[in-house]
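This part of the workshop introduces the protein records we will be handling. An example says more than a description, so a record of this kind follows:
>
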Amino acid sequence: MIKKLESPYYGWIFALLGVIGFSFKPVLIKLGYDSSLGVVETMALRMLFVLPFIVFPVIKSTKLILTPGFIRLATVVAIVSYISAMIFDFLGLQYVNVGTERLVLFTYPIFVVIFSIVVGKYKCTKAVVFSMLLTYFGIVFVFVGDMISASIPTKELYSGVFFIILSAISFAIFVLFGERAVKQIGAMFFSSWCLLLTAIVSLVQFLYFYPFIKLFTYSFHVYKISFLLALLGTVFPFYFMSIGLRSIGAVKSAILNNLGPIISIMLGYFILYEPITLYQMAGFILIVFGMFWLKKVQ
């Protein structure tokens, strides 16, 4: 059965479902905000429902050879980059549309390359600079489109884009410095460890601001959105993408990932009634082409 699921045919299906699931995440976060949830509450409730699904992979990974050095590396990488990327993303989504968030966050490979150049892993070629310029102008188009449509106040737009860029930078650091841990125990187990640490930090953060009993005082609607955010926007896409990656490889998975921003834009339009502008679509084309060119060069 496992081998059948990992066939190329099912690999494409699972990888696509993973992309769709991750595209749903910002929409569900915005729905949580619309239900009067704050950033800390949304993060905590999401990870509370995620926790039961990651216990088994974490327990299984303990059977592998986990040195104290690896545990320190995983903890530092998770807290410094993975968790900060999530926090900045949640903060940014308070101010910007789903489409803007996805498009800006989609540029994280550019920051991976920049950091790789700084540490001497890559050379700064003309092709890389061309990709960076395309991505930069794509973000400018998206930014100008939101300003012209006046769907977001200028001050909030600046704050939102700033936080999302910080999220992209943090995730780029996670990708770059988490590479060693991924090679040691695999992407699924390493990500499970990061999710576990994220859950712990999110719940501790919640308990710092709110009493423990508050976790059980929300409406059914809030718990429903949080559960969907955990299941459809985190757990399912996480495992679906892992299966797809093993089945069809990184290159084909990356091609499917290019669909993520446009799926999020369409979901934002139909579910949240967010406007779609020509500037946004132009920015989407520039950013996707910049990412495609970057991956081709790599």
Observations:
- Residues 220-257 form the longest helix (38 residues).
- The mean pLDDT is 83.
- The CA atoms of residues 40 and 206 lie 6 Å apart.
- The chain is about 85% helix and 0% strand.
